[in-house]
Design a protein that fits this description.
This protein is of the alpha/beta class. 34% of the residues lie in helices and 23% in strands. The protein contains seven helices and seven strands. The protein has helices spanning 3-18, 25-33, 49-58, 75-82, 94-103, 141-153, 183-191, and strands at residues 65-69, 86-91, 110-113, 127-133, 155-166, 195-203, 211-218. Strands 3-2-1-4-5-7-6 form a seven-stranded mixed β-sheet, with helices on both faces. Helix 4 (75-82) links the parallel strand 1 and strand 2. Helix 6 packs parallel to helix 7 (183-191). The radius of gyration is 16 Å and the shape is globular. The N and C termini lie far apart (43 Å). S-adenosylmethionine binds next to strand 2.
């Protein structure tokens, strides 16, 4: 995607962050995008290839209940639904959720406007498969522990959580949004009680390649 568009997104984010509103920029960005999807840096209008690769490698399918955290324009949620999960997808942006429903009018995915930090109580311990891809990396560091706590709470006993994020070494500069996570930050999921099942640290197939951490966790019975 063009650096001009990424710069626009960063500018909108910065304005909100500077005014002490770290979550307000998402709705603002989707609204400003209107029909112009290229202004949204993560909107590829196809399922995340890092997710597809993982699903194919592990043979993961439904049945079961799946939850997509920060569902954007819906492509990952639709993929989970196609693979047999009864899928719920939520995003803090009302515009993103309306957009997803409009893109997939026949969908059986339940698209819901919700904030990760005040999610419905009934989601606790409910989902057999939870997918977090690229939301943690757009949240400032001081919100990540609370985000990890909330994401963990959704996983049912015996269920799986898949996290896909940009990765960095602790000594690397945090850089500009999206801010890569360190392995220590991901250990917060283990501190919350999940068991780490696999940890992939690799360069993806983007041009230029991006370092990704793709981590699978299990919630023990
Ligand atoms: C970087 S985007 C990734 C979207 C999607 N996962 C994808 O890969 O296309 C992060 C998404 O999380 C949403 N989001 C950010 N903070 C959130 C929160 N507190 N609760 C729910 N959704 C949130 C944003 O609106 C945005 O759609």
């Amino acid at each position: 995607m063009s650096e001009t568009y990424r710069a626009t997104a960063r500018e909108i984010a910065r304005k909100h962050l500077d005014s002490g509103d770290p979550l307000g920029w998402f709705e603002d960005l989707y609204l400003q995008a209107g029909e112009n999807v290229s202004i949204i840096p993560w909107a590829d209008l196809e399922p995340n290839p890092n997710l597809i690769d993982w699903l194919n490698r592990t043979g993961t399918t439904g049945p079961g209940r799946a939850l997509k955290v920060g569902s954007g324009l819906g492509d990952d949620a639709e993929e989970l639904s196609r693979r047999g999960f009864e899928t719920t997808a939520f995003d803090i942006s009302e515009t993103a959720i309306t957009w997803s429903r409009d893109r997939f009018p026949q969908s059986s995915v339940s698209y819901i406007v919700a904030d990760l930090f005040s999610a419905p109580m009934e989601w606790k311990d409910t989902f057999n498969f939870v997918l977090e891809s690229y939301t943690l990396q757009v949240l400032p560091i001081n919100l990540r522990a609370a985000a990890v706590h909330s994401i963990t709470s959704f996983v049912a006993p015996g269920g799986t959580l898949l996290v896909i994020t940009r990765g960095r070494e602790p000594g690397d500069a945090e850089g500009r949004m999206p801010w890569p996570l360190t392995k220590d930050e991901l250990l917060l999921f283990v501190a919350e009680g999940l068991t780490e099942v696999s940890f992939n640290d690799y360069m993806d197939s983007e041009d230029p390649p991006v370092r990704r951490f793709r981590v699978t966790y299990r919630q023990e019975y």
